[in-house]
Amino acid sequence: MRRNGAHNFPAIDRVTYGKAASEAVGEEAERLAAKRVFLIVSRTLNSKTDEIEKIRRTLGDKHAATFDGIAQHTTRKQAAEVALHAKEARADLIVAVGGGSAVDLAKIVIMAMEHDIHDEAGFDAFPMGPGVSQSPFRSPRIRQIAVPSTLTGGEYNAAALVTDERQKLKQIFFHPQMMPVSIILDPALKLHTPSKLWMGSGTRSMDHGIEALCSPAGTPLADEVVLAGISTLRQGMLRTLEKPDDLEARRLCQYGSWLASFGLQARIPMGASHGIGHVLGGSFDVPHYYCTPVIMPSLLRYNKPFTEDAQKRLAAALGAPGDEAADAFAQFTRRLGLPGRLADVGIGEDKFNQISKIAINHRFVKANPRPFKDEADIVDLLRTAA
Length: 386
What we know:
This is Iron-containing alcohol dehydrogenase. InterPro entries: ADH_Fe/GldA, ADH_Fe_C, Alcohol_dehydrogenase_Fe. The protein is α/β, with parallel strands linked by helices. It has 16 helices and eight strands. The protein has helices at about 20-30, 45-50, 50-60, 75-90, 100-115, 185-190, 195-215, 220-240, 245-260, 260-265, 270-285, 290-315, 325-335, 350-360, 365, 375-385, and strands at about 15, 35-40, 65, 95-100, 145-150, 160-165, 170-175, 180-185. A hairpin with a 4-residue loop joins strand 6 (about 160-165) and strand 7.
């Protein structure tokens, strides 16, 4: 039982569920008195479905413009370019419809708009390194709405992952009001998400829950909520695996992601799974949704001496009470058909030293419940995940 601490509450108005995305976006635009809505959307949803067109029709003359060329890993350069387009369109509300990259792009675009950032170098004035505790950004005058099409749960977070392509380095930028003002959950939208992305993003959401549960900075409220979320996600993902067009299973997954991401909402620091995952994605182009299944089992084993009680509760939430949490998680991700080793995602031992040199300074690696003494400790961890 945690005996002291503080619980943070996020700068978000509401989560809307049980409505079509188009209807809910229209209602939120009306509630927020928006006149010029700029859409940042998945190209697949825009070109191969009618979901985005439904939103445009609902918005009518409130629709300012649509951008659908989102990079897999959000970049500084693209954020500056899209912010310029949004300014030219006189946008007063940004709506992201898609996966984690769409949501992260919307978060950092509102800051680029606020600070009139025109290129990737424009972000240099806003350092967010391991020692920075307060956001250097001003509060944005324009906010954003998130309509997620995956399960990552990053929409419940007031930070954005942004890659500096000059250094090939993924960085975290934060301000409390980078949190979406509203999140819209439409399970029908999720029927268009490819299976591997759906399952992989679900494990990423579980990652948020696991690292909050194991964090020394966690809270009793967050512990209970994320455990419920992990259990709910597991049920929903297994049902979706058996029947991909089961709308109720998709809805269950959404609810699980919402709950499992509660630690993000409470601003509980994540651990080394996130920190190393950011390096794998930003510097080595590993898809974000594959990072958790290849790192988490080994990290759970590494952290066990410091998180034994939490891991017992985690194993039960994963449907394997009494088992090792690392084994339960690895078995679950194998059942989903996801990669389980670094070699499966193209990361060999020749890259371990470079990964460790970047990761050792990552704020989430520094927040890991079991400390890493030096780069060699991280290399040893990577070897167990090889």
